[in-house]
Amino acid sequence: xxxxxxxxxxxxxxxxxxxxxxxxxxxxxxxxxxxxxxxxxxxxxxxxxxxxxxxxxxxxxxxxxxxxxxxxxxxxxxxxxxxxxxxxxxxxxxxxxxxxxxxxxxxxxxxxxxxxxxxxxxxxxxxxxxxxxxxxxxxxxxxxxxxxxxxxxxxxxxxxxxxxxxxxxxxxxxxxxxxxxxxxxxxxxxxxxxxxxxxxxxxxxxxxxxxxxxxxxxxxxxxxxxxxxxxxxxxxxxxxxxxxxxxxxxxxxxxxxxxxxxxxxxxxxxxxxxxxxxxxxxxxxxxxxxxxxxxxxxxxxxxxxxxxxxxxxxxxxxxxxxxxxxxxxxxxxxxxxxxxxxxxxxxxxxxxxxxxxxxxxxxxxxxxxxxxxxxxxxxxxxxxxxxxxxxxxxxxxxxxxxxxxxxxxxxxxxxxxxxxxxxxxxxxxxxxxxxxxxxxxxxxxxxxxxxxxxxxxxxxxxxxxxxxxxxxxxxxxxxxxxxxxxxxxxxxxxxxxxxxxxxxxxxxxxxxxxxxxxxxxxxxxxxxxxxxxxxxxxxxxx
Length: 542
Fold this sequence. Notes:
Layout: H1 15-21, E1 23-30, H2 36-46, H3 55-61, H4 71-76, E2 84-89, E3 92-97, H5 107-112, E4 118-124, H6 131-142, E5 147-152, H7 161-172, E6 175-178, E7 180-183, E8 191-194, E9 199-202, E10 213-216, H8 223-229, H9 232-246, H10 252-256, E11 260-265, H11 274-284, E12 291-292, E13 297-298, E14 306-314, E15 323-331, E16 334-335, E17 338-342, E18 347-351, E19 355-358, E20 361-364, E21 367-368, E22 373-378, E23 387-389, E24 400-402, E25 406-412, H12 418-431, E26 435-439, E27 446-449, H13 453-466, E28 470-474, E29 479-482, H14 487-497, E30 501-504, E31 509-513, H15 516-525, E32 534-536
Parallel strand pairs: 1-3, 1-4, 4-5, 5-11, 6-11
Antiparallel strand pairs: 2-3, 7-8, 8-9, 9-10, 12-13, 14-15, 14-23, 15-22, 16-21, 17-18, 17-23, 19-20, 24-32, 25-27, 25-28, 26-27, 26-30, 29-31, 30-31
């Protein structure tokens, strides 16, 4: 990944460059229950975006969390959709993109990661790297995303810290650099030693606002350590010596290249260690980065406004049945009322009513800069992956579809609603809620999703928004790959395997397999073809 070079001393920053330097656009990733919601809340608390700890949790208990827009989410008390939260911190503007934390997460969760410049990974100290974290990290890897790690729940018993570091290195192939070190855990947790700033942070003197006693330590032989920590002082000395001899040093470039992760320990629930991590994050995390297009790389400090759609959310306001396109500003300055060209359709549009987000709360935006996320009202014409510019013919890349892992067949309860079903599925697939496949032979709709919960969401929304009653049944398929290659080979492949072949909503050829073994055999048998598990959204004009 290209990283912005630090400004030269003789170079006077333009107002746009100053705005870019102030921004950090990031997501928090974790496995369910590792503490992502709690950490998000503490970050918002530190930025003054919410007033008291427990505000998000209390709203969740009310079955209506800040980012829960749909009835189904309120019923289940989970977040199905991703949301965006903007808040200030230390004269910076932070854009936090939330990723749904439920076990049945969706493709939307993956796609949010294509719109950020860096990531905070939260691990539960009792479980280390878990499955969903591993899947999300695979997406971060596609763009060599910088990752900071926060090992949570140190006030509970868990795995030894060195074992957790080893787990990250082995499972994710990511070099670790601890910048804080825990002193004990569970009921013996006394705090952390900040290796980055040589400070002792005491847990026993912490409050829920994240304030705690800090002791500057010039030398670990300092008798202050023994007075405060007793027998645990020697354990700390031994561990710090071990890390300094055997561990890695922080290398800013290796972090920016996604090869090394700084690690912090703490407790999000107690708001301990969060400020430590956030202070380091805003110092070393990259500002908005250059973005690739099919023709060239767009630099954030270019004068002309450009943006890319990475998410579409329907019915954020049930009174208006609206659909909102989430646009990441890639370059230039967005001004309210400006004209922009929707590159796929070549239509010029006036952007009058763009909004910024504080989860459910929305505010009109007068200006936005690279790294910011704006919402544009969408009447069904905007698709995921679409680009907006002030005129230049550009198509941003890197907003892919991901191969679904779960499949269902759609059955229509009223055959006279077939047209409405087709329209509903087309719109839901454009939004990225689900993927729709039609067989080369036959008329059945097969739905594919990254998380099985999306099927319930789909049935719910077909009924609610399109007045279509449908039910879904299981199918034998377990995996899917798109198929690409020379026309002659593709023709032979289609002829031989027509019963397993489908076209997705954009017309791309896809092979649905009944087992991983069958898929592997197919890949072996057709070496001239490629079977990618991700697919760029087509930029074809209408």
